[in-house]
Write a structure and sequence with these properties.
There is one protein chain. The chain has 120 residues and is an alpha/beta fold. It has one domain: DnaA, N-terminal domain (GMP Synthetase, Chain A, domain 3, 2-Layer Sandwich), CATH 3.30.300.180. Helices cover 45% and strands 23% of the residues. The chain has a 5-stranded mixed sheet. It starts with a helix and ends with a strand.
Length: 120
């Protein structure tokens, strides 16, 4: 038997609202998915295809969150019935926002407040 979330994901799949729906569902369930402590320092911000971007709000947690990539990906893959396959991290420290896939978003440059710099 399919879960309600799975059915709703299928209904919205292929529509312009699909990405917004997936992110909204994840935001609502975020504390239950990742725990209260982690939910206070990061949150899902967008999805493109099967790549979810998680925004990290606290520079001190950046490395710890990034080190949990596999565990988070597995949890989110299961929770979204495989809608999420990959993760990216976006760090927001004050007004600075850095997109990061392979680079360190908790680096000194990030903490110094470089705006809009893409890291690969």
């Amino acid at each position: 038997m399919e879960t309600v979330a799975t059915l709703v994901f299928k209904i919205y799949r292929g529509t312009p609202q699909h990405a917004d729906w997936v992110v909204a569902c994840l935001q609502g369930a975020w504390p239950r998915l990742v725990g209260e402590t982690l939910a206070r320092v990061c949150s899902p911000s967008s999805i493109a295809g099967s790549r979810l971007t998680i925004e990290i709000l606290d520079a001190d947690w950046a490395q710890a969150i990034r080190s949990m990539r596999e565990e988070l990906t597995d949890k989110l893959r299961t929770a979204t019935d495989r809608e999420v396959q990959h993760l990216s991290f976006c760090c927001r420290f004050g007004n600075a926002r850095l997109e990061a896939r392979g680079a360190e978003c908790g680096s000194r440059k990030a903490k110094a407040g470089i705006r809009g710099k893409k890291l690969e």
